[in-house]
Amino acid sequence: MPWPLTWRRRKGYAANVREPESLIAALDRAGQELGHIEVLSYNPLPQKEFLRPLLESTVTDIKAAVEFSVYGPVAAVHQVLQGMRFLKRGSVLFVNGGSAVQPVQHFAGTSIGFAGETAYAEMLDQAMKDEPIYVGQLIIPGAIIPGDEQKDPEVLAEKLWQMHAQRSEFRVYATELEQQPY
């Protein structure tokens, strides 16, 4: 299914998701230039220091992961939500790795940060139940793999589009989540 024309019209706005003011300013510029934002997909790529084992992670590492995975999405959603309410439609899509729902001590930063992001996304889903705004979370266990039948970037983009269009389940998995050895 091809993407709708409105999704093909796009423009980039640079922001540092660990600095809420930067993210708010970029989303404000986008809103001013393109109109109210109807779909927000929060899916920045985690930094390598978020993937350290728990016993090697410092408070600075964990603080950075929380800024990235909790403060960033809260700032982004807060910035676009009133526009979605004005439009009486919208989707907020969170994209996370498997550690968002199955913490792994080898990836302490993402496990802790994504847990906070997941809690925020679930609460936002609850808060939006009586409004025409869909909240969903796509879980991608492991890596995004070009050419893979389930984890190719185009396949994942189509999954996000389907989530937005169908507005059914809160959580969708790109592939089955395997049990992690502890």
How many strands, which pairing sense, and closed or not: the largest β-sheet?
4 strands, parallel
Mean pLDDT: 91
Coarse structural class: alpha/beta
Q: What percentage of amino acids are in beta strands?
A: 5-15%
SS elements, strand count: 4
Helix content: 40-55%
Gross morphology is: globular
N-to-C order of helices and strands? HHEHEHEHE
User: How is the largest sheet built, in terms of strand order?
Assistant: 1-2-3-4
Which value, in Å, is the CA radius of gyration? 16 Å
Low-confidence stretches: none
Q: Could you explain the architecture of this structure?
A:
Helix 2 packs parallel to helix 3 (59-87) and helix 3 packs parallel to helix 4. The radius of gyration is 16 Å and the shape is globular. The chain has helices spanning 5-8, 20-34, 59-87, 108-127, 153-166, and strands spanning 39-42, 90-97, 133-140, 171-173. 45% of the residues lie in helices and 13% in strands. By secondary structure, it is α/β, with parallel strands linked by helices. The mean pLDDT is 91. 29% of the residues are buried.
